[in-house]
Amino acid sequence: MASPTIDFPSSNNTVDVRLVDTTAVLTARAESFIEPVQEGHEVLNITCAAFLLHHESSGKRIMFDLGVRKDYWNLSATIQKRLGDVIPSLKVDRDTTEVLTEKGVPLDSISSVIWSHYHWDHTGNMSLFPPSTELIVGPGFKGSPLLLPGFPENPDSPVCSSDVNGRSLREVDFEDSDLQIGGFAACDFFGDGSFYLLSKAKYFYFYHHSLRITRSRPDVN
Fold first, then answer.
1. Which of 168, 172, 159 is nearest to 199 (CA)?
2. CA distance 210 to 65
3. Domain segments of the chain as ranges
4. I want to staple 6 with a disulfide (CB 3.0 to 4.6 A). Which of 23, 28, 182, 208 is the partner?
5. Radius of gyration of the chain (CA)
6. What is the pLDDT of residue 2?
7. Could you write out the DSSP letters of every residue in the chain?
8. What is the DSSP secondary-structure string of 70-92?
9. 114-123, 137-146, 172-181 — which is least confidently predicted?
10. Can you tell me the mean pLDDT for 84-89?
11. Gap between the Cα atoms of 197 and 189, Å rounded
């Protein structure tokens, strides 16, 4: 259970965080997310955000989520079937990789992409990143027959094989850490207190949030 207060170890290390407009705009049937549905609000307007993080001391860049892939019609068959039932409209002008490149961020400078979870509106198109970019997922992902092998080898998988094959696939391990933040198991990603991943069993057992430290701890009450 989440704690009403958030306490974490003191550190002067930080990460720089930039919100990335993934250009994805969609509508969703409110009944799929909210109960009861309010009259006049049967359809929700939704955008998808991703985050570019720069670890100042090491110079590493990582992406937290990727939004929706531009060619969403190439999502796995399982996801495509669901979209028609839940998503009345969807528009994606550019892949997140295009947005990064246009803003002067080379794709080979992204050391890691973290998926908060494997939903199609978070995973983007990993195949557009070079093989040097590792993909980081939550606990249980690699051992789940629901997910791996991916589509089309596994016709029922919501994950595309092209997203995971040919690159390092790493699970976050919360078992070896006694650290907790806000009542959640936590992983100190860089080992210096600048960026934490928090385990939250909300959607699936491989779901996690992140906590970014964007200013030195003495300035935080």
1. 172
2. 11
3. 15-219
4. 182
5. 18
6. 57
7. ---SS---------EEEEEEEEEEEEEEEGGGT-SSPPTT-SEEEEEEEEEEEEETTT--EEEE--B--TTGGGS-HHHHHHHHHH-SEEEE-S-HHHHHHHTT--GGGEEEEE-SS--HHHH--GGGS-TTSEEEE-TTSTT-TTTSS-BTTSTT-SSBHHHHTTS-EEE---TT---EETTEEEEESSSSSSEEEEE--SSSTT-EEEEE--S-GGG--
8. TTGGGS-HHHHHHHHHH-SEEEE
9. 172-181
10. 88
11. 7
Q: Which CATH class is domain 15-219?
A: alpha beta
Q: Which amino acid is at 58?
A: S
- Percent with pLDDT over 90 in the chain: 66
The answer to whether 192 touches 13, Cβ cutoff 8 Å, is yes
